[in-house]
Design goal:
The structure holds two protein chains of two kinds. Chain A is an alpha/beta fold. Chain A has seven domains: 229 residues, Rossmann fold (3-Layer(aba) Sandwich), CATH 3.40.50; 133 residues, Rossmann fold (3-Layer(aba) Sandwich), CATH 3.40.50; 198 residues, 3-Layer(aba) Sandwich (Pyruvate-ferredoxin Oxidoreductase, domain 3), CATH 3.40.920.10; 36 residues, Pyruvate-ferredoxin Oxidoreductase, domain 4 (Irregular), CATH 4.10.780; 134 residues, Alpha-Beta Plaits, CATH 3.30.70.20; 61 residues, no CATH class; 174 residues, 3-Layer(aba) Sandwich (Rossmann fold). Chain A contains 43 helices and 35 strands. In chain A, the strands form six sheets. In chain A, strands 1-8-17-18-16-19-20-21-22 form a nine-stranded mixed beta sheet, with helices on both faces. In chain A, helix 3 runs parallel beside helix 4, helix 15 crosses helix 20 and helix 15 packs across helix 21. Chain A is globular and about 90 Å long. Chain B has a single domain, classed as TIM Barrel (Alpha-Beta Barrel), CATH 3.20.20. Chain B has twelve helices and twelve strands. In chain B, strands 3-12-11-8-7-6-5-4 form an eight-stranded parallel beta sheet. In chain B, strands 1-2 form a two-stranded antiparallel ribbon. Classes of the chains: A alpha/beta, B alpha/beta. Chains A and B meet through helix 2, helix 15, strand 17, helix 22 and helix 41 of A and helix 2 of B.
């Protein structure tokens, strides 16, 4: 592309990210849009939904119909149907989502139906899931018959989206338009926009009419979707060839039209570099940016190199390819952003090689290489390494670049020597997740992009924790168009928005010589130096940095914004960066605040304005001393006592140095040790709970409610703490249950996230000072030293013998060791207390099948895993397959256990003569309680020692399956998005099969992980993405559906409403010989509540009948008891009283009071009706009794 | 019987005015009040603190969770077109009341910041309020703050609002001043056209089950009228501002007593909530009857006739009643 190459075009610049750029075009050219959330494509669907919700029309003035489906497969089906019925239809997706669309894509293409699917290309899960960008998903769609059009920048995401919509109508071949996930989809960029008039003028009405002509219509009936036989299928398949032959020409024509209208010219293949280049790199996607920079640089030094950027990948036009490739090219490196194990080479490489072969250019050497998998950085240095390799006498075939492959030795060596493009300002900001830093930086890009002639780019990096996360914003400003598609490594300006980061990460590592460093600091300019770690001081001196401090928290608090420091630091950035004159910048910031928050109300504006005005008064330059004075070292990523793997691998990842790990360091099959979260001491809580044993009533509620296993309980013999630190607290256990034993409630000070749920739930308070509870939040710094020592001591106190604990009680369950600890979930998460309880009650014998979602992220996202082991090395074994298949995945585990157990039992029988009484004991063991399990484990140990002495194949075989003689449980865990929507079909089938699996649905009533889209679990009247106007329909009653099978144990629970019921339900579900389903109410940040009070919200959810508690035990009928038992009372408060305290409902009441009132009344009716139904169900008997049977006999 | 009176320079048909309460919130009940004979209405207070709280809560909910992970970069809630924060809702109700009522509509305001008091006063004036009642209630919980400082704060507020608006201004205050009379004078000098004595607010209570503090409001009784009665009588004829008696006005007797003490209008809330708007009709009938029976021609004639200035026993309004009753009681024996 060459911006501005045509005359008389004066583009209107806009600042958008790739998703918005593509979605805007898609929305403006569609009548029907079927959506489903998946990272990183979700924002496209969200935007389309929001625009339609707001009444924004397409270019013909019609508001597109946007419908959220239950899965991408569902979305594709809806798209197919809509296309068949003649509507202009689109959808957005990525990764597994695209894979779920494949079957329909074959159909849509086979039927020659104009359609565009916009894809934010993302890694397909293999040994691990990854949300980041590469081409493994789109490459899996290349055989569907869709045309594939690749954008390599935000500008192209807009322009090529338009071209795709035009060309598909022109050719009848459907288009998959893609751009790289995150790198392009989430990159905020100044681009030249296209207005609706221009778009409309480029889409010929007759093509739209022709599409409608082909639609199914009873006035001109046709039939499509036949079944064909060997006689004609083949011919029919070939009949479409001419349409594919037309595609390259049609795309060229659309490109020409675009150039005419906008001045921006693209080709099917665009070449950049020396016209006489000898070495050429070929690639597609965002890697083109870094490659072009490297090529420009090399060409300027006289090297004969170039890059060919592929835009229309399918159909692959050899003619256009050869037309664009310099005839001088002798050596070609084809870079694929995907891996196809076992293939001759990756797909683009193969296409290029075949194309050259077919063209008879066999003299041109072609080498394939892989880069950028899962969004791995791809820099100009790497490009230079590739060019260097291509210059070698015999370049390495099938190389990789960007990693250190010390196993297959395929990686190229990258020499880090690169001069940034001239006249570029590069700024990097470290923020605390959710502190508004990213939003403010997006604003800054907008301000500078829209108010100056400068080009502007913003790219944002997040870590994988949901609490205490670090965000890094990379901003570039330049008088020239920016194509640097990689992170900043040499910043002119560096801001650290949280003082604590200095000890944790090497913030100044990427600071350039003489850069400006802005630090949000509670310490003023005179004291801050003494508080900095040594590493920070060293970098400041070595690089000659200018240092500025502002107490952003104080300024923000004073302005009434709490700890939201973003506007304060944004103002300081503008003052220091000197891109816009200060006064103009401040006016622009205020204007952007007005734009962003104006709708929220004057108070919000005034407080932000006050923060802007006060920011510069608080900004001070630090006089930098000439000597390093600090002895404060940066914190070790993991302690030195951590296991080897954690030291070598996990620790590097925690330290942000995962890119440096060589191939050999990583497991070959995605298998990782559990129990590693304990080594990642994050220390993110400003306040931690401190126990007062004087008041404690031994109830265990605090530990049960703790989402992070950071409040622990141990019960032990008093002499176990004789050597305890002085500050260690203990008390005698009050009741006779564990008479003579002592109790300690202990905080894990460095693992606590400070959510305060434990304090909120604590029922015990001082007689003298009511606000003083048995646990109280106190400043971390006052207690960290003592409590760290106490916690270390606490961990060494022996765990109580499980056979002595009453497991199905609140306190009993909490005496058990949690085998799920310190997850990266949100502070105050409503899901994790259930997961932790599960790990305590049954963790030493469970396999966990975990659906993709929040629980798979906080449970399985690197660097560390919260699933852990007890001192015997037993613990949950965890795996995640996909989002949609989790019930089936877990069922498979059950089948495997049962199969191997059968084998083991058979072998025991066969070996019985040699095993004596042990065989009978093993086969007839009662394993229904802890004592039984314990005994059986001892028997298996004994069996194994006997087997050792036996020298036969049967013994060896039995040894390999002997573990399966001990009861193993399968727990199938996931969220409502899985259970109610995408995985419901599988869940339903597993419920129907009746096998012994336990299903735990963590019901947050919304797609929490992808940012709060409505699911079928979302209640009526709640506001969510995809239900922006308030959800008009009620929630699906999953529990009733499960009960309809008659043999499924079903419990609906809410921990904050009735803890005892939760524990009982878990115990009963586990004991149920068959399928059990627990639906657990899980408050979420998506509810718009203060998570500290999440347990209290649950109480009101039950009191209002919004979330009735019950247990349905199919076995009860046999005992002549009602199967359904309501565990909560008839509603005592109204739905409104519960709902008005939650943002998700209150939001609608604010925005649209009349409709909110209507929906609230309907939601109340839902509750009343449901309660009435449930009450009747209590008296219902399923088993038919034929009274006259005896008489007949 | 001529029941006409003048309050804040407004000519009213009678001295019965519903004060700020849920009864004056909706147009439907306002119409019923007018129909029953109310001479004017005071709308419920626009609470600046409430507006701020709600606005910031919406803001927080929209910010909450944003940027929490790469998968959720925006907030958890979709942006809506409008959040109806600010005074919009109140102004809508004020305009609707003005549209349907022919009696004067008095807006009420409770601010928290200086800027807020004047800003919203102006907004209420622009929306058509016939008069403005400033509902000022400062709990002087700061032990370092002197009484004089608290008084100065009241006066600054009244001066600032007076300077900001042109419509008549009433100031509704509590009785907790060291020198009520002097305060009344100062408020009048600061620009108050009328004084509304006295306001009632939520008072804390303790829930013995939950051991929690639960502020609430209970409906008044006639007994509470007597404090008002005292100050009506003392202030009548001594301050330039018109006087509105509120708190504990329930019966015809209450109304008559307060008029005799000097009230220009009597205001009702609890009694209306208890008995409905129709109570006004019976109060007006009773007032006419009482005046008629005793040969009065008008309310104006009766007003202040038993004020401190006109009472045969002016000291009665200043008496330490406890002592006096004891003495009388013993002397009777």
């Amino acid at each position: 592309m060459s911006v501005g190459s045509e005359e008389s075009v004066d583009p209107a610049y806009i600042v958008v990210d790739g998703n918005e750029a593509a979605a805007r075009v898609a929305h403006s050219l569609s009548e029907v849009i079927a959506i489903y959330p998946i990272t990183p494509a979700s924002p496209m669907g969200e935007l389309a939904d929001a625009w339609s919700q707001r009444g924004e029309g397409n270019v013909w003035g019609t508001v597109p119909e946007v419908v959220a489906m239950q899965s991408e497969a569902g979305a594709a089906g809806a798209v197919h149907g809509s296309l068949q019925a003649g509507a202009l239809t689109t959808t957005f997706t990525a990764s597994q989502g695209l894979l779920l669309m494949l079957p329909n894509m074959y159909k849509i293409a086979g039927e020659l139906t104009p359609c565009v699917i916009h894809v934010a290309a993302r890694t397909v899960a293999t040994h691990a899931l990854s949300i980041f960008g590469d081409h493994s998903d789109v490459m899996a769609a290349r055989q569907t018959g869709f045309a594939l059009l690749a954008s390599s920048s935000v500008q192209e995401a807009q322009d090529l989206a338009l071209v795709a919509h035009i060309a598909t109508l022109q050719t009848r071949v459907p288009f998959l338009h893609f751009f790289d996930g995150f790198r392009t989809s989430h990159e905020v960029m100044k681009i030249a926009g296209i207005d609706a008039d221009t778009i409309r003028s480029m889409v010929p009405a007759e093509l739209v009419a022709a599409h409608r002509e082909r639609a199914m219509n009873p006035n001109a009936p046709v039939l499509r979707g036949t079944a064909q036989n060997p006689d004609v299928f083949f011919q029919a398949r070939e009949a479409a060839n001419p349409y594919y032959d037309n595609v390259p020409g049609a795309v060229v024509a659309a490109f020409d039209q675009l150039a005419e209208k906008t001045g921006r010219r693209y080709g099917l293949f665009d070449y950049f570099g020396d016209p006489e280049a000898e070495r050429v790199i070929i690639l597609m996607g965002s890697g083109a940016g870094a490659t072009r920079e490297a090529v420009d640089h090399l060409v300027s030094t006289g090297e004969k190199v170039g890059v060919l950027v592929v835009r229309l990948y399918r159909p692959f036009s050899i003619e256009h390819f050869l037309g664009a490739l310099p005839a001088s090219a002798k050596t070609i490196g084809v870079l694929d952003r995907t891996k196809e194990p076992g293939a001759v080479g990756e797909p683009l490489y193969q296409d290029v090689a075949v194309a050259l072969r077919e063209a008879g250019r066999s003299g041109t050497k072609v080498y394939g290489g892989r880069f950028g998998l899962s969004g791995k950085e791809f820099t100009p240095q790497m490009v230079m390494a590739v060019f260097a390799e291509l210059a070698a006498e015999s370049p390495m075939p099938h190389f990789t670049v960007g990693i250190n492959d010390d196993v297959s030795h395929l990686s190229l060596k990258v020499d880090a020597d690169w001069a940034e493009p001239a006249a570029m300002t590069q700024a990097v900001f470290y923020g605390l997740g959710a502190d508004g830093t990213v939003g403010a930086n997006k604003n800054s890009v907008k301000i500078i992009g829209e108010q100056t002639d400068l080009f502007a780019q913003g790219h944002f990096v997040y870590d994988s924790k949901k609490s205490g996360a670090i965000t890094v914003s990379h901003l570039r400003f330049s008088p020239n168009p920016i194509q640097s598609t990689y992170l900043i490594s040499n910043a002119d300006f560096l801001a650290c928005h949280n003082f604590g980061f200095l000890e944790k990460i090497d913030v100044l590592d990427i600071a350039g010589e003489g850069a400006t460093f802005l630090l949000n600091s509670p310490y003023g300019p005179d004291e801050v130096w003494a508080k900095m770690p040594r590493r920070t001081q060293e970098q400041i001196l070595e690089k000659g940095l200018r240092v500025f401090v502002v107490d952003g928290d104080a300024v923000a608090t004073e302005a009434g914004l709490g700890r939201r420091v973003n506007t304060v630091l944004q103002t300081c950035f503008f003052a220091l960066a000197d891109i816009i004159p200060k006064d103009e910048a401040i006016a622009a910031i205020k204007e952007s605040i007005r734009k962003a928050y104006g709708k929220r109300g004057e108070v919000v504006l005034q407080r932000n304005f006050a923060a802007v005005d006060a920011a510069l008064d608080g900004l001070h330059e630090v006089e930098v001393p000439s000597q390093v004075t600090s002895s404060l070292e940066m914190r070790l990523a993991v302690p030195e006592i951590a296991p080897d793997f954690v030291q070598r691998v996990t620790g590097m990842i925690i330290a942000g140095k995962g890119d440096q790990l060589p191939v050999s360091a990583l497991p070959v099959d995605g298998t990782f040790p559990t129990g590693t979260a304990q080594w990642e001491k994050r220390s993110i809580a400003p306040e931690i709970p401190i126990w007062d044993p004087e008041i404690c009533i031994d109830c265990g509620r605090c530990a049960l409610a703790c989402p992070h296993a950071a409040i622990r309980i141990k019960v032990y013999d008093p002499d176990a703490v004789e050597t305890a630190p002085d500050t260690f607290q203990t008390k005698a256990w009050k009741s006779k249950e564990y008479a003579g034993k002592n109790l300690t409630v202990q905080v894990a000070p460095l693992d606590c996230t400070g959510c305060g749920v434990c304090v909120d739930i604590c029922p015990a308070h001082s007689k003298e000072v009511v606000k003083h509870k048995s646990i109280n939040m106190e400043p971390l710094l006052d207690h960290v030293e003592a409590e760290t020592a106490n916690f270390d001591f606490f961990l060494d106190i022996p765990e109580m013998d499980r056979t002595e604990v009453r497991i199905d009680s609140i306190s009993g369950s909490q005496i058990l060791q949690p085998l799920f600890e310190y997850s990266g979930a949100c502070s105050g998460c409503g899901e994790t207390p259930y997961v932790k309880l599960l790990s305590q009650m049954f963790g030493d014998r469970i396999l966990v099948a975990n659906a993709t979602g929040c629980s798979s992220i906080y449970g399985g996202n690197l660097p560390t895993t919260p699933w852990s082991q007890n001192e015997d090395g037993r613990g949950p074994s965890w795996s995640n397959s996909l989002f949609e298949d989790n019930a089936e995945f877990g069922l498979g585990m059950r089948l495997a256990i049962d199969g191997q157990s059968k084998t083991a039992r058979q072998l025991v029988q066969e070996l019985a003569p040699q095993l004596g009484g042990l065989a009978t004991d093993l086969l007839e063991a009662d394993q229904s309680d802890e004592a039984g399990l314990h005994k059986q484990r001892e028997r298996v140990a004994e069996l194994r020692s006997l087997l050792k002495a036996m020298d036969n194949a049967q013994a060896r075989q039995l040894d390999s399956v002997a573990d399966y003689l001990v009861k193993m449980d399968v727990w199938i865990v996931g969220g409502d998005g899985w259970a109610y929507d995408i995985g419901f079909g599988g869940l339903d089938h597993v419920l129907a099969l009746g096998r012994n699996v336990n299903i735990l649905v963590l019901d947050t009533e919304v797609y929490s992980n992808t940012g709060g889209q409505a699911s079928k679990a979302t209640p009526r009247a709640a506001v969510a993405k995809f239900a922006a106007g308030g959800k008009p329909t009620g929630k699906k009653d999953l529990g009733m559906i499960a009960q309809s099978y008659g043999n499924v144990y079903v419990a609906q629970v809410a921990m904050g409403a009735n803890m005892n019921q939760v524990v009982k339900a878990f115990a009963e579900a586990e004991a149920h010989e068959g399928t059990s389903l627990i639906i657990a109410y899980s408050p979420c940040i998506a509810h718009g509540i203060d998570m500290t009070t999440m347990m209290s919200h649950q109480k009101e959810a039950a009191q209002s009948g919004y979330w009735p508690l019950y247990r349905y035990d199919p076995k009860a009928e046999a005992l002549d008891k009602p199967a359904l038992r309501l565990d909560s009372r008839k509603p005592t408060i109204k739905f409104k009283d519960f709902a008005e305290k939650e943002g998700r409902f209150a939001m609608l009441a604010r925005a649209n009071p009349e409709y909110a009132a209507e929906l609230t009344a309907a939601a109340q009716a839902d509750i009343d009706n449901r309660w009435q139904l449930y009450e009747q169900m209590v008296d219902v008997h399923r088993t038919a009794i034929f009274e006259d049977e005896e008489e007949q006999e | 019987m001529n029941l006409a009176t003048r309050y804040l320079g407004l000519d009213l048909a009678n001295p019965i005015v519903p004060s700020a309460s849920p009864m004056t919130r909706e147009v439907e009940s306002l119409e019923r009040l007018e129909e029953a004979g109310a001479a004017a209405v005071v709308l419920p207070s626009l609470f600046e603190e409430q507006i701020e709280h709600e606005t910031m809560a919406i803001n927080a909910a929209l910010n909450f969770g944003a940027e929490i992970s790469a998968e959720s970069t925006e907030g958890y809630f979709p942006e809506m077109d409008n959040y109806n924060t600010g005074a919009g809702d109140y102004l809508g109700k004020l305009r609707a009341a003005k549209d349907v009522l022919s009696i004067p509509v008095i807006a009420s305001l409770n601010g928290t910041t200086h800027g807020g008091w004047t800003l919203y006063a102006r907004v209420l004036e622009e929306a058509g309020a016939d008069a403005l009642e400033l509902n000022i209630y400062i709990v002087a919980a700061d032990a370092d703050q002197t009484g004089a400082e608290v008084e100065a704060e009241y006066l600054r507020l009244v001066e600032a609002v007076r300077a900001a608006v042109h419509i008549p201004l009433a100031v509704k205050i509590g009785p907790f001043f060291s020198s009520m009379g002097n305060m009344a004078t100062q408020l009048t000098e600061a620009g108050a056209d009328g004084l509304v004595l006295f306001n009632r607010f939520y008072q804390p209570d303790i829930d013995l089950e939950l051991l929690s503090v639960e502020p609430n409001l209970v409906l008044s009784t006639s007994d509470e009228m007597r404090l008002v009665l005292r100050w009506m009588a003392i202030l009548y004829g001594r301050v330039g501002a018109s006087l509105a008696a509120t708190t504990g006005v329930h019966t015809v007797e209450d109304v008559v007593k307060l008029i005799l003490a000097g009230a220009d209008v009597t205001m009702l809330a609890s009694a209306l909530l208890r008995y409905g708007p129709e109570l006004i009709t019976s109060l007006l009938d009773g007032l006419s009857g009482w005046l008629d029976e005793r040969g009065y021609e008008s309310v104006n004639q009766a007003r202040g006739s038993l004020s401190q200035l006109s009472s045969p026993d002016p000291k009665a309004f200043e008496r330490a009643n406890y002592m006096r009753t004891l003495v009388e009681y013993s002397s009777k024996v």
